[in-house]
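Hello K.,

You asked for the raw outputs rather than the summary table, so here they are, unedited. I folded two proteins back to back in the same session to keep the settings identical. This is the first:
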Amino acid sequence: MGTEANGSFNFLIYGKTGWIGGLLGKLCESQGISYTYGSGRLQDRQSIVTDIESVKPSHVFNAAGVTGRPNVDWCESHKVETIRTNVAGTLTLADICKEKGLVLINYATGCIFEYDSGHTLGSGIGFKEEDTPNFTGSFYSKTKAMVEELLKNYENVCTLRVRMPISSDLTNPRNFITKIARYEKVVDIPNSMTILDELLPISIEMAKRNLTGIYNFTNPGVVSHNEILEMYRDYIDPSFTWKNFTLEEQAKVIIAPRSNNELDATKLKTEFPEMLSIKESLIKFVFEPNKKVKA
């Protein structure tokens, strides 16, 4: 699609100050797509209606929400604030979009599952879009699972389950690689992850195709913490070292348990066959562009 074809699109994006929201604006600019950041608060219905009436968008993107700073433990002690944005706000936005006949692309989370007897670690059997969330260890994940269930009733919503997002910007503190490279110790568990440099352009394409429903928004396959840190050492910093600890040891330094899982990316891969596996995507989009180590 050339820029001419993009003239018919006009995106309204929520989450201007967020990581994904900021990247979406840059992508729209590079693709010549008209976009506006919403100024309304998600839980304030009238402010959203005002945004939509003034922008007259072709599609709405929701990259707003609270994940907590510095991490999801914040949500454990700020439950009402978490509900206000992640539950009331998201549902309000979906409801208004339904009234206005608009597709809503909603960046959600895949951290609502954990390995279990039917989806064991290393089995290659991932959770599918229609599976019922089984991880309620953190308040953040619990609210996200509730909202996903309710949003199933809105046929205008495209729910994208993002996991452990990674981008080529290794200075960003939200970047999963940057996070684990700075930790004193890391667990070493294979997980499904989202390479934003590859998948965010796909989400724009999903809007153009008016896709709705739930999608596991991760690259196919899994990668472990140690595998990522080995790549970091090999491509970025040969002197880099790290220490591992067990889930039991990790539990002593975090308030809420963390989700570890593999999501089945077949549905997304079928729609976008060119999508790379997680390790290929890491090398192409993250490590090669940042390469500092001389071959």
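The second followed immediately with the same parameters:
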Amino acid sequence: MPGRLMRSLWQRWRRYRYRFVPWIALNLSHNPRTLRYVPEESKDKVISDEDVLGTLLKVFQALFVNDFSKQSDILTVLPEPVKSKYQDLLSVQHPRVKQLEYRHQQQNTFTSEEILYKTLGFSVARAPSSLISAGKGVFVTKGLVQKGAVVSMYPGTVYQKYEPIFFQSIGNPFIFRCLDGVLIDGNDKGISKVVYRSCHGRDRLGPLKMSDSTWLTSEIHNPLAIGQYVNNCSNDRAANVCYQEFDVPAVFPIELKQYLPNIAYSYDRQSPLRCVVLVALRDIEQGEELFSNYYTIVS
């Protein structure tokens, strides 16, 4: 029994140590390929914010139209020009269906992974990692990810530097630290899950959801919201994706916020919502696992 307990603890440590700051500090020199050097915080951009925004809008709009028959409550509060835009998109995808009759008919919807493939040319999903004792990882399941493409998002509750996260952080391997000290808790279990659901319910405005909580379940609506399961690269496995911070602009369509897998711990109208996306550093083929470098050194 003691031997089994020790083996279990050792396996947990092997998975957790790559996010344990003291261990990282002592082992930086032994793992040069797990670091990413950035000349300045403002230059930590592989692609522009405009490209990130364009990709997210493209995917979210496709998800919205695919689930159009269930958006009736939201459509009632949208301006006529916005509703007309989605009806035009719908007519392109379903030219034989009359707009007024569409919501009353049986819709042949695609899965979220299929939507991602049809929109960006690839799909990603969680599966057991190819690394020993690494738990789950993220793989390209179909298509080709081109260099510079947004391949996933890091979901979770967003904490400012001064906000409490001690209890959520205990034994939590899913906390991501941004360059400015902002933290994102991407754990989909325990107290982290409870906190996210609470904030999600707090910010809802009638039929309008300000965030997506389905990444906490097995039925994920946003197929990109699995970035917290991307494993760290190693000396044997070079990084093929990297993290890039993105602040959601004020002009982001309110009807598409239901697909954002992040929410602020404290409600604040002044601060933009922080998101983190993963961007491909090279072309990534079907069947490959995604590997990133968690740690960035700003010189």
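The longest strand covers residues 136-143.

Happy to rerun anything if the numbers look odd on your end.

Regards,
P.
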